[in-house]
Amino acid sequence: MTDTTTPLAGSVPLAPRAWPLLGHALPLLRDPLAFIMSLSGYREMVRLRLGPSSAVMICDPDLTRQVFLNDRTFDKGGPIYDRIREVIGDGLSTCAYPLHRRQRRLCQPSFHPARLAGYGAVFARAAEAKAASWQDGDVLDVTQEMMTLTTRATMETMFSGALPAETMRRSLADTAVIVSAFFRRMMTPALLRRLPTPQKRRYDAARTRLAATIAEIIAERRADPTDHADLLSTLVAAVDEESEEGKRQLTDAELADEALTFFLGGMETTAITLAWAMHLLATDPDVQHRLKAETDQVLAGGRLDPAHLPSLGLASRVVTETLRLYPPAWMMTRVVREDAELGGVRFKGGSTIVLSPYLLHRRPDLYTDPDRFDPDRWLDGQPDRATYIPFGAGARKCIGDQFALSEAILALTAIVDRWDLSPVGDQPFRPKVETSLSSRGLRLRLTARRRDAGDDGARTDVAQPLSAVEPPTRPGAACPVKHGE
Ligand code: HEM
């Protein structure tokens, strides 16, 4: 699926429905999820063709894990990352193996548990403010609302600032254009990608504007280098000890790549996770009711606080289950750097490998009733590291996983505490498949929660203690469901 022909990969069966010349481009563009799931019968791996290029899709959890863990051989690359690199250059999420460890070390302090504890208060206040901004009877553009929420939280925690309203609105629109273009551009041959179509012009303009906004943020920070205890300060102060020119600070271009990485990575994924969680709750009144009971019990009339996180067991399981059903990074690609063996098959250097959390998360031999929303499937234990991979694994595992989980759990709690969520219309809502599993276009109706009389407006419409509603969660845990390695 790269522009050059991918070298052959041993005796891997070719997926059915390959068209002459086009290969699997049509089913992948028409209904990517149905096509991917049609491959779940292949136990280990299957070959895909896109025009003259081919790629091997890994269907087995243990082989997927081997790819993740051996990131020197199975490096970031392939069609998804080649397209994302057009926008964020060699930032942490796209850089190749030789650059990765140093960049990860530079960014890691911003995700230290002590820092995360401080971010929690920002998440809680931002979520309460967002939930308070809606009116009874509103029909929400859920994804748009969640994007503004997560952008605000990312800006405050990573960049210690807020964007002026107009810049925020424009940056969100630009982000939407860029993110939705990635997948289409990945499927389009190089020659066609360069044609000056209206879509390409919109994409280029959005990239230029977003880059200019990030450049402004960096210039402001260079002019005021006091330590803001955020990601940007860490990066501005960072000294590259291993540079060929000797010790040096990051250039503006390198800073821009990192800042864009966190701007795009931090907001869209968490926003769509929240949107899908709200959708699932709207279509499952029973779980929604139980979640309100948990919220009432835990908040007990007080304000939402990050210290509540260990007690929000059901909210945590709802987020875990949402990420199983709708993993934003539904598909990832890797490039094989040098000849290697995987699952008894020899891969030549330059081969493209495709990994799919969506496929693993919905395989009936790995999950009972896999298409059903069932947060209680996580009651008995932690997610399995091989079969549950919404954040990837190994050295390239998401650096923002705990950040995103706390943000999502707190936001969901703030929202259900105030609002009853219900679907608009009776048509099932389907994901827009892009580089992420987008919830764009999702609308939900809000009704102000009715609380029982006699509780002076406090949140106590359940009589039972929480222990009767939900089993207790491990005390002291920042997030009741752990997604760590
Ligand atoms: C629910 C929300 C999120 C999901 C599902 C998610 C998913 C992922 C996945 C699957 C990867 C690995 C990609 C691969 O191996 O090809 C990844 C990497 C990454 N994520 Fe996230 N992410 C989320 C939130 C965040 C947040 C909030 C941030 C930053 C504030 C972030 C920043 C990054 C970065 C920088 C990487 C690259 C890490 C590296 O290569 O060392 N993500 N994410």
TrEMBL record:
Residues 448-485 are annotated as: Disordered. Belongs to the cytochrome P450 family. PROSITE patterns: CYTOCHROME_P450. Residues 449-459 have a biased composition (Basic and acidic residues). InterPro entries: Cyt_P450 (IPR001128), Cyt_P450_CS (IPR017972), Cyt_P450_E_grp-I (IPR002401), Cyt_P450_sf (IPR036396), Cytochrome_P450_Monoox (IPR050196). Keywords: Heme, Iron, Metal-binding, Monooxygenase, Oxidoreductase. It comes from Streptomyces hintoniae. This is Cytochrome P450.
